[in-house]
Specification:
The protein has about 120 residues and is mainly beta. About 0% of the residues lie in helices and about 60% in strands. The termini are far apart.
Length: about 120
């Protein structure tokens, strides 16, 4: 089956940086959009950033100018570089990918999440 595995979360001081990565594996013909979502305690899961198959990024207003998303199509990976982190960024970050399988079927997949904690 298709899997998404995240890495790079951790604890950082406000103003610091972290880099999250996500690698997709399995029987995938191609990956359409990929992205990152986050969920803080007591809050709904929200979009952080997405990037389409051609590399066009999209960002939530709350992270514009601080986060950068990128992807490597050959390696089926997506990276989120997070700079100038704020305590409000503390959340579990989930990788998402919309995949086209060899049957031409399209499905959405999610990683298990990685914790990001920003201290003040």
């Amino acid at each position: 089956q298709v899997q998404l595995v995240e890495s790079g979360g951790g604890l950082v001081q406000a103003g610091g940086s972290l880099r999250l990565s996500c690698a997709a594996s399995g029987s995938i013909w191609s990956i359409n959009a990929m992205g990152w979502y986050r969920q803080a305690p007591g809050k709904q899961r929200e979009l952080v950033s997405t990037i389409n198959s051609l590399g066009k990024p999209n960002y939530a207003d709350s992270v514009k100018g601080r986060f950068t998303i990128s992807r490597d199509n050959a390696k089926n990976t997506v990276v989120l570089q997070m700079n100038s982190l704020k305590p409000e960024d503390t959340a579990v970050y989930y990788c998402h990918g919309n995949m086209e399988l060899f049957t031409r079927e399209r499905r959405d997949y999610w990683g298990q999440g990685t914790q990001v904690t920003v201290s003040s």
